[in-house]
Amino acid sequence: MTKSNGFNMLDVKKKNRSAILHLIHQNRSMSRKEIASRLGLTPAAITLITTDLIQEGLLVETATQAKAKKGRKEILLEINSKNFASIGISITRTKFKIMCIDLDCFVLFEDTVSIEDCRHNAVQILDKICSFLSVQVLCRDTIRAKKLLGIGISVLGVVDTVTGVSLNSYGIWEDNVNAAEYVHKKLNIPVILTNNICALAHGQTFLDHSSSSDNMLFIKYGPGVGCAHLSSSDTVSIYDYSSVELGHMIMDINGRPCICGSQGCLETLVSYDSIEHSIADMVSETFTPVLYEILGGKRENLCMNAIMQAYDDNEPIVVRAIDRTITYLAVAIKNAITILNPASVVLYGELFNNISFKRALLFRLSDFPGTQLVSFSDFNLGLETLGPATVMISNFFEIGGL
Questions:
Q1: Rounded to whole angstroms, how far apart are CA atoms 301 and 294?
Q2: In whole angstroms, how large is the CA radius of gyration of the chain?
């Protein structure tokens, strides 16, 4: 019984430390009295725990705030962000991006490295990442001076975050790659592997200092469609983010075949490749004069950037193609809301930086009830490496900084 109680006390201690760290991070700074009130713990218990956290360098006493009565002041506590660092790596089919940040998300280092020379080979890709980290990142004085929490890695496809295994990366490397264990053994640093969209969604909530009870649907559009769902009734864990195959929702049973084996999936209707394919045969000086001029008269130059330029110039054929895309995307978003019943929907992607596209999508969404909860990320196009880096920070908070 004593042993069992000992373990229980350790669990309670970790849970309380974790709750305090999460709460202070969400509110940026809090007094001990506020923390005790929010968590339902005694002031004495909070003082004991926060004293330990200060001595360990996790918290610092900073500013003071005046109390309403008698002009007395309360000391505020903040996360000691500058003492710690986290590394985030985003792996795509052609490159990996790497970023090292402190707990305030101040960037200490970032770079992009090509993996064109080792595509489809997990060992070569991971060795290249480990070599780059050893030579270019971990030896830097600005990083060595801090406590490194670990490395968060995001990759396309199906990932088992608990085991750190990439089950199917859709062509980046082989199936069933235990990437987290491989990098950990090479560098002796904690590693967490997660799906790329889940990492983006995590970065969104972390940087937004969202409430732990948020129920969010995060949708990335471009070049394909990715989606992650965060659903938690208590303190959010890094394991509460689940990938949703929104891109493979069937929208047209008579549509084009999809790589997933079905046909008429959302991906076959709204992906960049699909949009380019739908317009390519119509590109000519007669039918698409604006687009033709943008392309310099060369159909092989067709790309989404050129298409969106023509869209902004109201090229009729291009406008019809993009409006069709917007309609399918809006219907898919509405269907996802109906099925998952999120409290919020956040959209992320390069086309949402296009004012015309953004307005057209909002107008189309207004046709459906319940879509007023849709918003656009304030961190658009900035989460690819920040996302996995913040996963490591949240994991550190979850284990109570122990």
A1: 9
A2: 24
What residue type is assigned to position 12 of the chain? V
Q: Which of 8-17, 34-43, 58-67, 318-327 has the lowest mean pLDDT?
A: 58-67
Q: What is the pLDDT of residues 39-96, one digit of tens each?
A: 999 999 999 999 999 999 999 998 676 555 555 678 999 999 999 999 999 999 999 9
The 8-class DSSP code of residue 65 comes to E
Residues in a beta bridge with 34:
none
**How many angstroms separate the CA atoms of 344 and 199, rounded?**
17
Please report, for residues 77, 142, 144, 263, 394, the alpha-carbon distance to residue 102 in angstroms, rounded to integers and kept in the order given: 18, 10, 12, 45, 12
92: helix, strand or coil: coil
Query: In this structure, are residues 110 and 175 in contact, taking their beta carbons and an 8 Å threshold?
Result: no
- In Å, what is the CA distance from 289 to each residue of 201, 294, 301, 314, 315? 40, 9, 15, 11, 8
Q: Which residues contact 223 (CB under 8 A, 6 or more apart)?
A: 271, 272, 273, 304
Q: Using an 8 Å Cβ cutoff, are 172 and 157 in contact?
A: yes
Which whole-number Å values give the CA distances from 367 to 345, 362, 363, 371, in the listed order? 16, 9, 7, 9
* Other beta carbons within 10 Å of 365: 21
- The closest alpha carbon to 271, from 382, 363, 170, belongs to 170
Contact 274, 224 (CB under 8 A): no
Return the structure tokens found at 368.
Answer: 């459906």
Residue among 110, 112, 86 at smallest CA distance from 192? 86
The CA-atom distances, in angstroms, between 360 and each of 81, 186, 217, 318, 367 are: 41, 49, 21, 14, 12
Q: What is the pTM of this model?
A: 0.92
Nearest CA to 218 out of 366, 103, 376 is that of: 376
Q: How far apart are the C-alpha atoms of 308 and 314, rounded to whole Å?
A: 10
Query: CA-to-CA distance for 199 and 164, rounded, in angstroms?
Result: 14
User: Cβ of 50: how many Cβ atoms within 10 Å?
Assistant: 21
C-alpha neighbours within 13 Å on the C-beta side of residue 381? 8
Contacts of 123 (CB under 8 A, 6+ apart): 182
Of residues 329, 357, 157, the one with CA closest to residue 251: 329
Q: How far apart are CA 190 and CA 127, in angstroms?
A: 16
- The answer to whether 102 and 84 are in contact (CB under 8 A) is yes
